[in-house]
Design brief:
The chain is of the alpha+beta class. 43% of the residues lie in helices and 15% in strands. The protein contains 35 helices and 26 strands. Strands 1, 2, 3, 4, 5, 6, 7, 8, 9, 10, 11, 12 and 13 form a 13-stranded antiparallel beta sheet that branches. A hairpin with a 5-residue loop joins strand 14 and strand 15. Helix 10 packs antiparallel against helix 11 and helix 34 crosses helix 35.
């Protein structure tokens, strides 16, 4: 047995006999400032919270981190004076509480809005703990008195002496332990360390002393994690206590001792290996022989996951001067070399370490301790903690072939060795380990989420939670590109994130109270129908219109006039004019071409200005449209009810608009204005206007006058597209989350279809998002008579979160005007607080300019190797990221749908491989499969949304009934010759009956 092991056992036995209290294991005395803890001997300590890495980590990245940190930390660990404790823990038992805490804010937001989404949140709290684990990762930096010279230490001791005649402080934090000698050295160490971590893309931040003490206490008592407890430290209001010692003792006037605040329950020694601490049994162990092969920490985590992971933690205590402790061993090995061949190997190993140090490789003094725990009140709890201890020992020993011993002497002291931040002491024997090997073994490859909280909770492949907050202040712009081949989980991901936007705290921060954000979804197909249905059923009946799903049709009933303006405005606002110019350019683009004729856009700009001037009553040469009774019976009825005076051939529609507005009737003013503004057909007259012809009348393209091309294009559009023939009839009203399905008006198949699709995307964007790009800044450009209406509205609109989603974006590939408009939306989005999301099947579906502006890239899959290379080159990804995109984006599975994220934030670029894990309730809510939708909608009608989702989730926990329907259909087809649609309808009827019966 090693001398260190013998000494450890002797010490442990002595401590056991003397029943050493937990307080004796705390080396902390008080604090100095906001982030510095002071030890009982005057040493200083600061705790660092490590969020993890901002990039995926492979061999290349790990080698870079190892090389960099070895170079930067070498000076601090080359000698004595500094110590680093790296503490890491995973506790699956805390997953439910953690997820409940994460979901508390979305629950509150949903309740404020009036939505009942309890079944969704309840299921997340039940389902996600199967896949997600709580993690804690902290580093304690120590600067000890030995960092000072002999003379400085003498001065420091004098500095730490209390003044003469000062009262004693026997039961409180001693303020005279705070000295200035070490402060500068320690701060330099802390700042340099945090900076070094950030330089290798590891998110880390120093913690204030209250957070640090709380983290220490939580590591002692894991069952207290999540409490609101906070330590009382210098600088906090004094809570005067009753004097209990002597009249010359000032303890009752100062802050309670740190150890008395941390340790609220004593430890009980149950066996030589197990203690009871609070409500938990603990089993501890130390690494007594280091690994023969240095392996990454990820290997240990994977070993634990393979063993059906349970709560565990580890502590790396890293100090300088690793070779000094080996001097006696080398001496003894030389003496006894002739008797034992192993001694020669020891001496050679020491010499190899010395040679490494001479080659600028720092050799550290490393001690490693581990622990696991289990609920003391659970059935068979002793058996459980014994099994967990044995499994943890096997997992650690398989981590590079090391030796771990649970016989640490005193099990209380052994357990405290794996606690965070109490002391630099440890029961583990020290090993001399080169710093690069130590760095390789540390848990640095944990994916860091820049968000501490978020309404959606993604996860890493090994179960680390990754909260996401769409549209947060961590981003400069809000532009997402989402791409994946069909079947990779893109639609479900988008529904997940759009639901998250609805329950985000930002949804209730605007003036006007809590309400849904503005989300406009332009889609081809019913991908968003499930989300809308979920929101509608969650809202109370009088608010269900706030979420709407529409299928746009090429009919007069769905007419949209792109020349509509804001209420009372005789001319379009600048961005509205820009949109009109792009729309008309798309209209004038010949079939088979991607751009309009040269000069066409400029012609349209001039024509737009002339058109509004002609139909404005504010222009002395204007000819505003006259009011004609019978055009809108609804408006006529309102006019009669208000008893407006109508002068035939004089009263204009603008007069009607102003009259309604003067009465405060915004609804009828809006309806009347639809007849006051110009329409596409009026462009034919303007294109013959002298004001336009004087400038553009002679411009030609391929021998044809551009004006004639414009007339032909507009005439054709009026003839071919009924949706453009009338004043606006299609209106989303005051709906806030709207999905507009273009499936019926965006056909496939050649040039004419491509052109129609482009125009429909533009119209959809106009009708859904015409209010998005408004704010108080533009009030001066609006009709002064309407400022009382628009002022509060513009302020509210600017504050509200807004999102514009273009799905199936590849359908616009041949329409430069649409893409030009999208680029304008992307460039202007930040100014107006608009989040833009473009979704398609391939990266190539987005222009390079769009990709360069994106703040979030979400990749669910790629088509082929060329796409892998293109994605890697476009976003400057690492070889590790490239391999993930090539091999690991396999589509939805039992544990969720994997994806790769690149986020460009204020703090730099993040790259992460993540998984979107949903329970069957959400999958059923978001399903876009025709059969699933039919079954779900039928059950919604019969059982109500919540009960229907519960029954569907229990009967089909995979989130789909399609395979069951196909299986039954196959059996029916063998017996009957019926059409597929009839068979499916019959099976769905049968399933509905079965599920309704199950619900009773």
């Amino acid at each position: 047995m090693a001398i260190t092991s013998i000494l450890s056992n002797i010490t442990g036995a002595f401590n056991s006999l003397t029943k050493k209290s937990l307080a004796s294991f705390c080396f902390l005395e008080t604090s100095d400032g906001n982030e510095m803890l002071v030890a009982k001997d005057g040493s200083l300590a600061t705790m660092i919270r490590v969020d993890g890495s901002k990039q995926v980590m492979g061999d290349t990245e790990l080698e870079h981190i190892t090389t960099s940190l070895n170079r930067q930390l070498g000076p601090y660990l080359g000698g004595e004076g500094h110590a680093i404790q790296v503490w890491f823990s995973r506790d699956k038992d805390l997953a439910t509480q953690m997820i409940r805490d994460q979901m508390s804010t979305p629950r509150e937001v949903a309740a404020q809005i009036g939505m009942n989404l309890d079944d969704v949140f309840d299921e997340r709290e039940r389902h996600l703990p199967k896949y997600i684990t709580w993690e804690g990762f902290y580093i304690m930096l120590w600067t000890r008195m030995s960092a000072l010279t002999k003379k400085e230490r003498e001065n420091a001791r004098l500095e730490l002496k209390p003044p003469a005649l000062m009262p004693t402080v026997s039961d409180a934090q001693d303020p005279f332990r705070v000295g200035a000698m070490l402060r500068d050295r320690h701060w330099s160490f802390v700042r340099s360390f945090v900076s070094d971590l950030r330089d290798v893309s590891i998110r880390a931040e120093s913690m204030n002393v209250h957070e640090a003490i709380k983290a220490i206490r939580n590591s002692v008592y894991p069952d207290l994690i999540g409490s609101d407890w906070e330590a009382t430290m210098p600088g906090d209001p004094l809570r005067v206590r009753i004097p209990e010692i002597t009249n010359f003792d000032a303890s009752h006037l100062l802050w309670p001792k740190i150890e008395e605040q941390i340790f609220t329950r004593e430890a009980e020694r149950v066996s030589p290996r197990i203690i009871k601490l609070g409500s938990k049994y603990f089993a501890c162990m130390d690494m007594v022989v280091g690994p023969t092969e240095t392996m990454e920490f990820e290997t240990l985590i994977n070993r634990m996951i393979e063993m059906d992971e349970f709560p565990w933690r580890c502590s790396f205590m890293i100090e300088g001067g690793g070779l000094r402790s080996l001097g006696i061993k080398k001496f003894l090995a030389s003496i006894f070399q002739f008797t034992n061949g192993d001694n020669k190997m020891i001496r050679q190993a020491i010499e190899a370490l010395q040679e490494s140090q001479q080659n600028n490789t720092t050799v550290t003094r490393l001690r490693m301790s581990f622990a696991t725990w289990a609920d003391a009140g659970a059935p068979d709890s002793m058996k459980q903690i014994e099994e967990r201890g044995a499994r943890l020992q096997r997992a650690v020993e398989n981590w590079g072939n090391c030796t771990v011993s649970p016989l640490v002497g005193d099990p209380v002291e052994g357990t405290m060795s794996s606690v965070l931040g109490l002391d630099v002491a440890s029961t583990a024997p020290a090993g001399a380990v080169p710093l690069p090997d130590v760095i390789t073994m540390l848990p640095l490859n944990r994916d860091a989420s820049p968000w501490a909280r978020g309404p959606v909770l993604f996860r890493t492949a090994d179960g680390r939670p990754w909260p996401y907050q769409p549209g947060s202040s961590l981003q400069d712009t809000f532009i997402d590109l989402v791409f994946a081949p069909p079947g990779k989980g893109k639609s479900v991901w988008m529904n997940t994130v759009n639901l998250a936007r609805c329950v985000s705290p930002m949804a209730v921060q605007a003036s006007g109270g809590a309400e849904l954000p503005r989300i406009a979804i332009i889609d081809v197909g019913p991908s968003s129908a499930g989300l809308i249905s979920l929101l509608q059923e969650a809202l109370p009946p009088h608010l269900r219109h706030k979420a709407a799903y529409h299928r746009l049709r090429m009919t007069h009933r769905h007419a949209i006039n792109p020349f509509d303006t804001q209420l009372g405005c005789r001319t379009p606002l600048p961005l509205e004019r820009s949109f009109l110019q792009n729309f008309l350019s798309a209209l004038g683009t010949d079939i088979g071409e991607t751009k309009p004729p040269g000069g066409f856009s400029q012609l349209m700009g001039a024509a737009i200005d002339a058109l509004y001037a002609k139909f404005s009553d504010a222009d002395r040469k204007g000819m505003p449209l006259r009011y004609n009774e019978g055009v809108s019976p609804e408006v006529d009825k309102a006019i009669h009810s208000y008893n407006f005076t109508i002068n035939k051939n004089e009263t204009t529609w603008w007069d009607i608009v102003d009259n309604f507005f003067a009465k405060g009737d915004i609804h009828y003013a809006t309806l009347a204005q639809r007849h006051a503004v110009p329409r596409l057909e009026h462009m034919m007259t303007i294109l013959s206007d002298e004001q336009v012809l004087d400038v553009f009348g002679t411009a030609k393209h391929n021998g044809e006058l551009v004006v004639d091309i414009a007339k032909r294009a507009i005439s054709s559009a009026i003839r071919e597209y009924p949706i453009l023939q009338r004043p606006t009839a299609f209106d989303i009203g005051d709906s806030r989350v709207v999905a507009l399905d273009l499936d019926e008006v965006a056909p496939k198949g050649g040039g004419p279809a491509d052109k129609q699709t482009a125009l429909m995307y533009m119209l959809a964007r106009f009708v859904l998002a015409k209010d998005f790009y408004l704010g108080p800044e533009i009030l001066a450009e609006m009709n002064a008579d309407y400022h009382s209406f628009h002022g509060p509205r513009l302020k509210k609109m600017k504050e509200q979160p807004k999102c514009l989603v273009y799905d199936e974006f590849h359908r616009t590939s041949k329409a430069s005007a649409v893409r030009d408009q999208v680029v304008v939306d992307m460039r202007e989005g930040r100014k107006w607080g608009v989040h833009i999301t473009l979704a398609s099947q391939l990266l190539a579906d987005f222009d390079k300019e769009m990709a360069s502006m994106a703040s979030g890239i979400w990749i669910m899959g790629v088509g082929n190797e060329r796409d892998v290379k293109e994605t890697t080159e476009m976003f400057g990804l690492s070889a590790t990221a490239e391999e993930i995109i090539r091999t690991r984006l396999t589509g939805p599975g039992r544990g969720g749908a994997p994806f790769f994220n690149v986020s460009n934030l204020k703090e730099g670029q993040h790259e992460h491989f993540l998984i979107n894990t949903l329970g069957p309730t959400e999958i059923w809510a978001f399903s876009t499969t025709a059969e699933d939708q039919a079954l779900r909608n039928r059950l919604y009608e019969l059982l109500g949304a919540v009960r229907a989702r519960q029954v569907l989730s229990r009967r089909f926990p995979g989130g789909s009934a399609k395979s069951e329907i196909e299986s039954r259909a196959s059996r029916m087809e063998n017996r009957h010759s019926r059409s597929d649609s009839d068979v499916n309808a019959s099976i769905i009827d049968q399933l509905v009956k079965e599920l309704v019966a199950m619900a009773k």
